């Protein structure tokens, strides 16, 4: 079993508007209780100062729980708080530059919505791809057209790096994205908007691990 792959199995992305009024640390702690392997700090509206405060708090929490912390969009913030890595999309810092700044050890995730973007991200030094949106999502206004699981299958046959499915992933479709070739999932609403965050995370984790490793 690939331990690195397992550490990327279940990404929970923070979202201040979809968390039903619960604060970010509470949500993250509950997700970690349920077995999230990665917390991705994603806060598009915070000032840099606030983002740093959130990142520092999540750094302490994830370290205590043995989970990874990945910072969305902001390489500078990831470095400043000694996060495990950063995630960039197609409108962010180019992946090759992000890799230069992060160095060889930190994790670089790159969003890919088609085969070309994926191939470029691999060449630029991505450690994993965020693949999607797989299904329709209300959580990201500019997510683009759903790609369906076919993109995952195509990428799985071309690339060996971890493929993290994102966009509309929930308890009902997790099995099919893993079967299509995803090695993990990244979710917002399925966890942060769940009444019981820990239970929702636990259920998703069970499916991912059962499909990948048979337990
Ligand atoms: N990137 C592509 S889709 C998406 C992001 C950040 C939103 C995922 O949110 P949800 O609620 O899991 O569909
Ligand atoms: Mg981005």
From TrEMBL:
GO biological process assignments: thiamine biosynthetic process; thiamine diphosphate biosynthetic process
Q: What is its EC number?
A: 2.5.1.3
Pathway(s) of this molecule: Cofactor biosynthesis; thiamine diphosphate biosynthesis; thiamine phosphate from 4-amino-2-methyl-5-diphosphomethylpyrimidine and 4-methyl-5-(2-phosphoethyl)-thiazole: step 1/1
Q: Do the record's keywords include Transmembrane?
A: no
Provide the top EC class: transferase
Catalyzes what? 2-(2-carboxy-4-methylthiazol-5-yl)ethyl phosphate + 4-amino-2-methyl-5-(diphosphooxymethyl)pyrimidine + 2 H(+) = thiamine phosphate + CO2 + diphosphate; 4-methyl-5-(2-phosphooxyethyl)-thiazole + 4-amino-2-methyl-5-(diphosphooxymethyl)pyrimidine + H(+) = thiamine phosphate + diphosphate; 2-[(2R,5Z)-2-carboxy-4-methylthiazol-5(2H)-ylidene]ethyl phosphate + 4-amino-2-methyl-5-(diphosphooxymethyl)pyrimidine + 2 H(+) = thiamine phosphate + CO2 + diphosphate
Q: Which InterPro entries match?
A: Aldolase_TIM, ThiamineP_synth_sf, ThiamineP_synth_TenI, TMP_synthase
A Gene Ontology MF term for this entry? magnesium ion binding
**So where does Mg(2+) get bound?**
73, 92
Q: Which residues form the Thiamine phosphate synthase/TenI domain?
A: 11-191
The residues listed in the UniProt record as binding 2-[(2R,5Z)-2-carboxy-4-methylthiazol-5(2H)-ylidene]ethyl phosphate, with positions renumbered to this chain, are 137-139, 168, 188-189
Q: Where does 4-amino-2-methyl-5-(diphosphooxymethyl)pyrimidine bind?
A: 40-44, 72, 111, 140
Claim: Transport is one of the keywords in the record? no
Query: Any note on cofactor binding?
Result: Binds 1 Mg(2+) ion per subunit.
Please provide one cellular component term from the Gene Ontology annotations of this protein. cytoplasm
Protein keywords: Magnesium, Metal-binding, Thiamine biosynthesis, Transferase
**Pfam families this protein is in?**
TMP-TENI
Q: Which NCBIfam families match?
A: thiE
Q: What is this protein called?
A: Thiamine-phosphate synthase
Report the source organism: Reticulibacter mediterranei
Q: What is the lineage of its organism?
A: Bacteria, Bacillati, Chloroflexota, Ktedonobacteria, Ktedonobacterales
């Amino acid at each position: 079993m690939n331990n690195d792959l397992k550490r990327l199995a279940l990404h929970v992305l923070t979202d201040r508007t979809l968390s039903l009024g619960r604060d970010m640390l509470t949500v993250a702690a509950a997700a970690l209780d349920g077995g999230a392997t990665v917390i991705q700090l994603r806060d598009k509206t915070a000032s840099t100062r606030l983002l740093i405060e959130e990142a520092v708090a999540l750094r302490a929490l994830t370290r205590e729980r043995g989970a990874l912390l990945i910072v969305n969009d902001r390489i500078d913030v990831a470095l400043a708080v000694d996060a495990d890595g950063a995630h960039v999309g197609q409108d962010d810092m180019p992946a090759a530059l992000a890799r230069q700044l992060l160095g060889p050890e930190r994790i670089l995730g790159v969003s890919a919505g088609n085969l070309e973007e994926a191939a470029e991200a691999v060449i630029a030094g991505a450690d994993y791809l965020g693949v999607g949106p797989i299904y329709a999502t209300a959580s990201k206004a500019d997510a683009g057209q759903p790609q369906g699981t076919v993109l995952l299958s195509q990428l799985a046959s071309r690339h060996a790096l971890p493929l993290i499915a994102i966009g509309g992933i929930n308890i009902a479709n997790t099995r099919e994205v893993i079967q299509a070739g995803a090695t993990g999932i990244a979710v917002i609403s399925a966890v942060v908007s769940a009444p019981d965050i820990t239970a929702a995370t636990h259920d998703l984790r069970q499916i991912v691990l059962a499909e990948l490793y048979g337990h």
